[in-house]
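Hi everyone, sorry if this is the wrong subforum. Our group has a chain we'd like a structural model of before ordering constructs, and none of us has done structure prediction before. Sequence below.
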Amino acid sequence: MSTSSFLNTLSGRMLLFGVVPTVLVIAAIVTMSAIDGYRDLRNVEESLLSLSARDAAAQLNGRNERWNMLATTMAMAQSHGLFGARKDSTDFARSVASDTPGIVGAYVVYEPDADGQDAAALKSAELPRDSMDSAGRFVPYWVKSAGAAVLHQRTGMETMESYQGPKNAFARAGRPAAYITEPMVRNGVMVVTHAHPIVIEGKFAGNAGVDRDLATIAGVADNIKSRLGADVFIFSGTDRFIATTLGEKAGGDAERLVMQEVAKTPYGALAEQWRSNMSAGRVFEAVDPVLKEPCLYATSTTEAGAWNIVVRRTRADVLRLANAAMKRNVILGSIGLVVVGGLMFFVTRSVSLRVRAAAETADRIARGDLTRPVAAVSSRDEAGQLIRSMSTMDGNLNSLIGSVKQVSIRLNSTATEIGATSKQQEASASTFGAASSQIAAAVKEISATGKDLVRTMEAVSENAAETAQLAGAGRAGLQGMESVMQELDRATASIAEKLGTINERSQKITTVITTITKVADQTNILSINAAIEAEKAGEFGAGFLVIAREIRRLADQTASATLDIEQMVQQMQASVSSGVMEMDRFSDQVRRGVRDVVSAGLQLGEIIDRVNRSTESFKQVNESMQAQSEGAQQISEAMTSLSANAHQTMQSVQEFGRASADLQSTIAVLRQAVAQFKLKE
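Answer:
Right subforum, don't worry. Here is the predicted structure as tokens:
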């Protein structure tokens, strides 16, 4: 059978106008759903990659701010009364180095003679000689060794970034600020220095700082790799690697990346793209120079220290879920197309065979061949009913032929009306079928959208939970800071109490000096009286006169020395009084800082409570979206069934219309054929 002949048959037209459009619509829906799912999964993976980069930057920034705060506290202690007290400054730096975990050294450095003292001050037994450098700077530098702080000598501070960096930054900005140096290897340990200028009366007088061990930085990168399966690169503002998750060998390359300049590694070609995306914060794709395959990169940077973070995943890893989902959708869609096409072909072929059998029977009866019986059928549809009616008509034709002559005209009119009605019903069924198909497609899209919303709400709920955890960690950090500030307040009160004790003892010294002065004056008067008596004695008192003069000279020297000591004690009392007032003001500032930290902790607690309540709301919305998605799925299944019924109804109406047309033509033939019949008298 040729193609044109097949399309002229009932089964051909049903396949052409019913099955093919349905298959094309289903294929289009499956394709669009697969494309949308692929795009959504990739967007989710890219968002997760970008969020990991920002999370790592936030963790590193928090750690840098913590050590900046320690350096700032040391510098503020110098600016508010500790400056010039060299032994106390030395002891303070040693306690910071020995009692603070995570640092390898602490120091205080003065500009040469900034406190008005010279190198002779080091001859005192209270100060070790290693606290001065060759240029006359006061530099007590303590290095942690086996859990204890050991004093090391520092020379050439004017050439070090940890000294010149804060000094130059203060000169440019006109105000003190924390400064983070570039990473360096010291005594086999990779460290970075956190420093803060010491400002006295608006002038740079030195700085204080700590050397921090960077070994813990690798833990941040390893945490991201364990959670996401992504490689992490952390490098400084001058493009020097601080930590990576590639181990000692970068993808098979024997070159170590840590402490190497990015430009001198295989990733130097990507450095410009990394830097250009730091501020934008977007995910970009490029070919990795070591892996030799496309990878996705997410970048971020820290505010403190301007460190850069790059998170990398291969495109194959990122798109693995998306490719699997797309393949699954294509397979399910293909199976659905085959099943629907097969069912519709089976139904079309079955209907076509019954209609063809009915047409052949009608044609035989129209030719007047009443010798053969009509084949029996068990079908209950319109075609089966038509064949059974023809069988009855064949059995009763001889008795009805006479009546047919009389009612043929009225039967022809009725057949015409039936044909018109069947056409109207066919048009209505066709419109209803198209509408039900559109509704079914829309409901499927709603169901798919509901599932996407459920996944999105789950991701949002997880992000809210992670935000609550991070906020809880921040509140714990504030509580720790509150205890540190309270400890600093107690230490300040202790220093003020000791200064008061010094002031009281200096007053006692003044009393003793007054007594010594009176004794010297009395001794001077006695020496004068002795000289007078010696003069009276003549030559017998000459020896006694010499002794009296020597006693007078010693009394004069004692009075002069006592006067110098009294002036020095008065100066010390003035300095101690000023220090007591400065410590009182500093103690007030520390108390205000404690109150501010407590207030910030309360506000952060309220934020955590609200985030927790939002998390519960997200869970309720997620449950509602899941219920809505299940309802949409049920509606989609019901509309699919309704669409199939609409197609079957339209096919039945078409069959009925064709049967009506056949009936009308048969009536015409019967009118002609009845004229040929001769009835019995």
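For your construct planning: The domain at 483-615 is CATH 1.10.287.950 (Helix Hairpins). The chain is about 70% helix and 10% strand.
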